[in-house]
């Protein structure tokens, strides 16, 4: 089987039903092939050649899974997985990008992330630097285990129906003027 074949109108068989890598030509130095890889005791292995060392290339950001159809290149006796081409999604619908402690930088004029259900961000520290930050939500819940600090030149709180603040000890201080205005005011 050649790496590039003419496009046909025949339906594409699922990954698990395609020919095994044993049907592909043996890897020659400097060549690249489509094949399937398997997870062995010593790491990744080609389905057709379990003796050739296999490494995942830095350019292959998607972590391979057992049985994936991949593009490999043979260089100096080592096969490098260049890309994950196809996956049998019955293994799970998850794509992992593992940089092994490295950094990932994305740079573009605009980046849009669309998530159908949940977006979870986990970090030891989370920083957002922006000229303008806008959040729209039907409900917002913020839980802070320690101290919450807000510093701004001006703060405006507008509760369309109500505003409630509760604490065991509290203080409101103003160095020049403090105004409280309402149709009714109750103290005590």
Q: How would you describe what is shown here?
A:
- This protein has 188 residues and is mainly β.
- It has a domain at 27-91.
- Helix content is 0%, strand content 17%.
- The protein has strands at residues 32-40, 43-46, 54-56, 69-75, 78-86.
- A hairpin with a 2-residue loop joins strand 4 (69-75) and strand 5.
Q: Strands, helices and their partners?
A:
Layout: E1 32-40, E2 43-46, E3 54-56, E4 69-75, E5 78-86
Parallel strand pairs: 3-5
Antiparallel strand pairs: 1-2, 1-4, 4-5
Distance between the termini: 85 Å
What do the pLDDT scores average to? Answer: 80
Radius of gyration: 29 Å
Count of individual helical segments: 0
**Extended strand count:** 5
Given helix and strand content, the structural type is mainly beta
**What are the segments in which pLDDT stays under 50 over at least 5 consecutive residues?**
1-10, 18-25
The major beta sheet can be summarized as: 5 strands, mixed
Please state how the strands of the largest beta sheet are arranged side by side: 2-1-4-5-3
Shape assignment: elongated
Q: Which percent range describes the beta-strand content? A: 15-25%
Reading the helices and strands in chain order gives EEEEE
Proportion of helical residues? under 10%
Task: List descriptors.
mainly beta, 5 strands, disordered N terminus, 188 residues
What is the structure about, briefly put?
The chain is mainly beta and 188 residues long. Helices cover 0% and strands 17% of the residues. It has no helices and five strands.
